[in-house]
Write a structure and sequence with these properties.
The protein has a single domain, classed as Arp2/3 complex 21 kDa subunit ARPC3. It is 71% helix and 0% strand. Helix 4 packs antiparallel against helix 5.
Length: 182
């Protein structure tokens, strides 16, 4: 149930206006957590729900025509984030593994999505030059979003894994032992 509640938080964090949220989104953290806690059979639900939100935002909020080809990298990343959560966080969700997921998830999205944007817009007259300089400019423009994504993903994962571990820790009465986030 917590994985589905985090998915709902991710959907809401995409739809609710972001002006007061400082760019917070629960998407990365919820997908990583979903992969760690749910089966692969359930993987299509978060991907379809987030793709639906992408469609809604593009056509209704931003008023653009929808081109599904423009979202292939994002949708592939949704699946990859779930797989990454399954690999890193299923068996032994240590603090190091959660921190690694909180860094690898946003980093993989940053690299893949900005590279795709550069590929799509690096033609003569496009937004970015079709050169290494244009690619680096595209990455530089994405840095503020990347930083906020790392913070958002880290916060979601810290809450999702840290709160239950802390509760278990205090329920067992091991006040002197370290907290395991498994």
């Amino acid at each position: 149930m917590p994985a589905y509640l985090l998915l709902l938080a991710a959907l809401l964090s995409r739809v609710v206006p972001h002006s007061g949220w400082f760019g917070f989104t629960a998407v990365g953290g919820s997908l990583l957590y979903f992969g760690a806690r749910r089966s692969f059979r359930e993987m299509l639900l978060p991907m379809a729900a987030l793709a639906g939100v992408d469609y809604f935002l593009t056509t209704r909020v931003y008023g653009y025509d929808f081109a599904w080809q423009s979202y292939m990298v994002t949708w592939a990343w949704y699946g990859a984030a779930i797989v990454l959560g399954r690999i890193l966080l299923t068996e032994r969700a240590s603090t190091l593994r959660v921190a690694s997921a909180a860094l690898l998830g946003p980093t993989s999205f940053f690299l893949a999505s900005n590279y795709a944007v550069w590929l799509e817009s690096s033609h003569p007259g496009g937004m970015y030059a079709p050169s290494m300089s244009g690619l680096l400019t595209c990455f530089a423009v994405g840095l503020p979003f990347y930083g906020r994504d790392i913070l958002s993903t880290g916060l979601v994962l810290a809450i999702a894994f840290g709160v239950p571990a802390t509760v278990r820790h205090f329920q067992t009465g091991d006040a002197g032992a370290s907290v395991s986030i498994r």
